[in-house]
């Protein structure tokens, strides 16, 4: 095949258009053929693995649509050289850029019908829609296919979140151009940068921004909260807690509060709607002021334990022994936990005065 690029203008915006010219004609390949092609290449192992992962995602989607086994699927459009170059090229690009996380806006899929190897298909194509299950999509006034199975497989293999633009420090911007001229710019924009640190130093205090989500629940099995907390923390929540409240008609209930970074809002919201009985939630921004702290190891007559020491205006103001260490020493020695806790706390205060 031959590969070349050119600069084009779409709605006044300059973008790079890449062309793949196949010298072999149109060839149908199955997954084992593509595995062999990629396996014989001299690409780095991580590029090969991720490329094959994307083709496997495609194969599973196609197999489900056609009601057959993945090894029996013959790739038509995606088995062609240009589709292989699209997928492997995307993987190489993200690998060479050193991208660690990928975020995307909701996917604009287009509308109407598209001509494929199996005939006319609705937009989005069945394989595209299958691959985008669980992903926010939308369709507006643009006629045609804006999201292909190849593109859907790539974006779902990489993206952690689909939603608002995350808070990042922008470093580079690139535009890739499609061939069709649409009523909107036919461009894919890639913005590369570092996630903005939501915490800043101000007079020795860390100041950060986050979101608080609240839901009132009066009809949920209490046994489910343990699993809910686990899911929320796995989803990126910074803090989760419940409080007893009294609702209308004097019904006892709980107020569930979750604090989360901005870029985790979509995931936390999904978990709350899926794992609780709530039918609505409240979201509002918060500002956090956090004292700097250190974790120190304290040697006591019972053994060593870690202590969290917070500082205000250069001096220690709060000393908190780590609970897990205190519990471990209480079990080892048979001493009351409260005595262990106080002993470690007092020893920590003495050590801090001596060393500072």
Automatic annotation (TrEMBL):
GO terms for molecular function: lyase activity. Keywords: Lyase, Nickel. InterPro entries: Ni_insertion. Transmembrane segments: none annotated. The keyword NAD does not apply. NCBIfam families: nickel pincer cofactor biosynthesis protein LarC. PANTHER family: NICKEL INSERTION PROTEIN-RELATED (PTHR36566), PYRIDINIUM-3,5-BISTHIOCARBOXYLIC ACID MONONUCLEOTIDE NICKEL INSERTION PROTEIN (PTHR36566:SF1). This is Nickel pincer cofactor biosynthesis protein LarC. It comes from Desulfitobacterium dehalogenans. The gene is larC.
């Amino acid at each position: 095949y031959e590969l070349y690029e050119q600069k084009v203008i779409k709605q006044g915006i300059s973008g790079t258009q890449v062309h793949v010219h196949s010298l072999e004609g149109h060839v149908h390949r199955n997954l084992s053929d593509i595995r062999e092609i990629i396996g014989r290449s001299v690409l780095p192992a991580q590029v090969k693995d991720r490329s094959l992962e994307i083709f496997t995602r495609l194969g599973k989607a196609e197999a489900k649509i056609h009601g057959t086994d993945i090894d029996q699927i013959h790739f038509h459009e995606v088995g062609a050289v240009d589709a292989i170059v699209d997928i492997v090229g995307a993987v190489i690009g993200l690998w060479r850029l050193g991208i660690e996380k990928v975020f995307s806006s909701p996917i604009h899929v287009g509308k109407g019908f598209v001509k494929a190897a199996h005939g006319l298909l609705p937009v989005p194509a069945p394989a595209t829609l299958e691959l985008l299950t669980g992903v926010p999509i939308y369709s507006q006034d643009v006629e045609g296919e804006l999201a292909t199975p190849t593109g859907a497989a790539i974006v779902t293999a990489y993206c952690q979140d689909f939603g608002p633009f995350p808070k990042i420090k922008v470093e580079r911007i690139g535009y890739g151009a499609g061939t069709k001229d649409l009523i909107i710019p036919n461009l894919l924009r890639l913005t590369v940068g570092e996630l903005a640190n939501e915490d800043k130093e101000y007079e020795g205090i860390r100041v950060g921004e986050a979101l608080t989500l609240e839901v009132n629940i009066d009809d949920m099995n209490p046994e489910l909260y343990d699993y809910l907390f686990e899911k929320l923390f796995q989803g990126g929540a910074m803090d989760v807690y419940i409080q007893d409240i009294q609702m209308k008609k004097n019904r006892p209930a709980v107020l569930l509060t979750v604090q989360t970074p901005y870029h985790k809002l979509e995931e936390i919201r999904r978990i709350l709607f899926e794992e609780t009985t709530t039918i609505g939630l409240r979201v509002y921004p918060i500002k956090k002021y956090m004292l700097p702290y250190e974790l120190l190891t304290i040697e006591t007559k019972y053994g060593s334990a870690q202590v969290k020491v917070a500082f205000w205006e250069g001096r220690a103001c709060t000393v908190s022994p780590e609970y897990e260490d205190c519990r471990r020493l209480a079990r080892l020695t048979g001493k009351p936990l409260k005595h262990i806790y106080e002993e470690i706390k007092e020893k920590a205060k003495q050590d801090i005065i001596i060393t500072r």
